[in-house]
Design brief:
Helices cover 46% and strands 11% of the residues. The chain has helices at 15-30, 37-47, 58-65, 73-80, 99-110, 121-124, 131-140, 151-155, 157-169, 208-222, and strands at 88-93, 118-120, 142-149, 177-181, 199-200. It is elongated.
């Protein structure tokens, strides 16, 4: 039998190739696995919520939060239009010497079934207020203006001012300015009012009933 020394000793394998292979396995395991396109889209669909269930954009949500609550349209429109849009139904314009006749007219209108709201300067003007401001405010806050035309009215500069102011504010509003003539002839009727009819106060009731009917007729047109 031949001696074992006669055979060449087996060469040891180099460790270098094994080291390269181990590095390759390490890199392969450390790299993230790339999914197919269909798998990526599926994962995106699962991870992200659908736009149907997404919260609204900040601009939309803020706009919705600023939306005022609904209001009763009927109640607001009824309080801001028609008869109740002004503080008074009638403003009685008169001179100082005709205060008693003006008070009788106001008592008649307010005591009627219509319960008309009247402005009487001596009673309703603001104490300490400027005369011009009070007169203009009384006219603008009333639907109708009754001009108590007497000899004292024609001689009072403030009465003429109210008459011209009433005509300038509503020159085309038929039935809004109502002249009531007392103690004057037709020839003394002011030239500024010649284009409208007047109520003759020489009747048994002093023309008060006609004045009330004229006011009610106008209020019906705006109701």
């Amino acid at each position: 039998m031949a001696s074992s020394s006669s055979f060449p000793a087996p060469r040891s394998r180099s460790k270098k190739p094994l080291g390269k292979m181990a590095d390759w396995f390490r890199q392969a395991l450390s790299k993230p696995r790339k999914l197919p396109d269909s798998a990526e889209s599926t994962s995106r669909d699962v991870s992200q919520p659908s736009s149907r269930y997404a919260p609204p954009a900040p601009g939309l949500s803020s706009a919705l939060s600023r939306t005022p609550p609904p209001t009763d349209v009927g109640a607001s429109s009824s309080s801001s239009s028609g008869r109740w849009s002004k503080d008074y139904d009638v403003c009685v314009c008169h001179s100082e010497e005709d205060l008693e006749a003006a008070q009788e007219l106001v008592s008649y209108l307010e005591g009627s079934t219509a319960s008309l709201r009247c402005f009487l300067q001596l009673r309703d003007a603001t104490p300490g207020g400027a005369i011009v401001s009070e007169l203009c405010q009384a006219l603008s806050s009333s639907h109708c203006r009754v001009l108590l035309i007497t000899p004292g009215f024609l001689q009072d500069p403030w009465c003429r001012y109210q008459m011209l102011q009433a005509l300038s504010e509503a020159p085309g509003a038929e039935g809004r300015t109502i002249p009531l003539m007392l103690g004057l002839t037709r020839a003394a009727y002011p030239a500024e009012l010649r284009f409208m009819y007047f109520v003759d106060g020489r009747g048994p009731d002093g023309g008060f009933r006609q004045v009330k009917e004229a006011v009610m007729r106008y209020l019906q047109t705006i109701s």
